[in-house]
Design goal:
With 399 residues, the protein is of the alpha/beta class. The chain contains 13 helices and 11 strands. The chain has a single domain, classed as Type I PLP-dependent aspartate aminotransferase-like (Major domain) (Aspartate Aminotransferase, domain 2). Bound molecules: pyridoxal-5'-phosphate.
């Protein structure tokens, strides 16, 4: 399909090309100094102490869970409205995902109320609940303060759950550079967070991710697990003269390449400007779509969402049929759209493999049926958005 307007696109120029060429000329392509520099740049941008670059956002999520102590049999609360990677990272740890609903159609992030309710139900049943993975959907912050409050056990003394510790691991794949209303950078609020640098993200390296944390134990464990659990890598042996290494835990090969990190270093410098451009375009969509009664835009309730990253442009239509009709009309016009997301608890694999009866998450289900994602990226022009909105208006007239 030859699209006239892409769902996402990348603001690359000769700087990324030169950065990659420089790494090629250096002939050091695997984990090394450029990755270290990229990690420092992310720490500086987010104001956190440690960053561990990985081969993907999924790898960063997996390492964050393991390093934070999530073990086989633990329960991990997670919104069903997310990409499967969030849930898969839980399953890689042989832990059990407990799907939670979203707050509201116009605030489609994990509901602190549902979290409070599920934590107390689980508290009665077991002592296993170990973690929660809020997803900063579309680059907008979850209600972190309310979640922190909801996770504080409110049970009577002597109950099993009084000293239960529920660790927060943030999925900040959509949210590099975003901040909560209180100014904390998304990804750095919980025990650890994960960013993704996949090709359609706000900060792109092709494939890549980053675990961010202020906890030195988590950072140290994640660093070990990233490279097979061995105590020194090829680069350290070359520059620091180590001749031997030990293996102290069972790890993985989750290392990024220097080529990816070189792109990342250029992209970090462009992030603020690119996120600002996304915001301008989001606000234009909001202004133009506000004239159409059948369209609602999440996160435009007037609540304080801090400084979002505006990763995607979700809209809601009045029902599933209307959503499909609008999507088809845009597709026929050459405008690429998407759906964020089909709900995790409805996928065949999770439905058939996870324990327990089928779950009902009414707000997420209503949201997912009516949701459509419109193009949003820094290379879009104002006229593109005006055209997209005209096409939506025409599609709705056909009802
Ligand atoms: C919400 C969310 N979590 C996790 C990931 C996984 O990131 P990656 O593709 O870098 O492994 C993605 C990527 O699309 C995502 O959208």
């Amino acid at each position: 399909m030859k699209w006239k307007i892409l769902l996402s696109d990348i603001a690359f120029d000769e700087q990324e090309q030169e950065a990659v060429a420089k790494v090629i000329r250096s002939k050091w392509l695997s984990l090394g100094p450029v990755t270290e520099e990229f990690e420092h740049a992310i720490c500086e941008m987010l104001g956190c102490k440690y960053a561990v670059a990985t081969s993907s956002g999924t790898a960063a999520l997996h390492l964050a869970l393991l390093a934070a102590g999530v073990k086989p049999g633990c329960d991990v609360l997670v919104p069903a409205l997310t990409f499967v990677a969030t849930v898969n990272a839980i399953l890689y740890c042989q832990a059990t995902p407990i799907f939670c609903d979203i707050t509201d159609l116009l605030e489609p992030t994990i509901s602190p109320e549902d979290v409070r309710c599920k934590v107390s139900t689980l508290a009665d049943k077991s002592e296993k609940t170990a973690a929660i993975m809020p997803v900063h959907y579309a680059g907008f912050p979850c209600r972190m303060a309310a979640l922190e409050e909801a996770l504080t056990p409110r049970v009577s003394k002597g109950s099993k759950a009084t000293d239960r510790k529920i660790t927060i691991i943030e999925d900040a794949a959509h949210a590099p550079g975003a901040r909560a209303p209180d100014g904390r950078a998304l990804g750095t609020i919980g025990a650890a967070g994960a960013l993704s640098f996949f090709a359609n993200k706000n900060l792109v390296t092709g494939e890549g991710g980053m675990l961010v944390t202020n906890n030195s134990d988590i950072a140290q464990t994640a660093r070990l697990l990233r490279s097979h659990g061995i105590t020194s890598g090829t680069w350290e042996r070359q520059v620091k003269g180590f001749s031997d290494y030990d293996m102290t835990m069972l790890g993985f090969n989750y290392r990024p390449s220097e080529l990816a990190s070189a792109i990342g270093l250029v992209q970090v410098k462009k992030l603020a400007e690119n996120n600002a451009r996304r915001k301008t375009l989001f606000l234009l969509y909001q202004r133009l779509l506000s004239n159409i009664d059948e369209v609602q835009i999440p996160f435009t309730t007037g609540s304080d969402f801090g400084t979002p990253a505006y990763h995607i442009m979700p809209i809601l239509l009045s029902d599933e049929l209307t959503r499909n009709r609008v999507s088809l009309r845009l597709q026929q016009a050459g405008i690429q759209t998407s759906h964020h997301y089909r709900l995790a608890h409805q996928f065949t694999y999770y439905r058939t493999q996870l324990p327990g009866p089928p779950q009902s998450l009414p707000i997420s289900e209503d949201y997912s049926r009516r949701q459509l994602t419109l193009p949003l990226h820094p290379l879009l022009h104002e006229e593109d958005i005006e055209w997209i909105v005209r096409e939506i208006t025409e599609a709705l007239k056909q009802s």
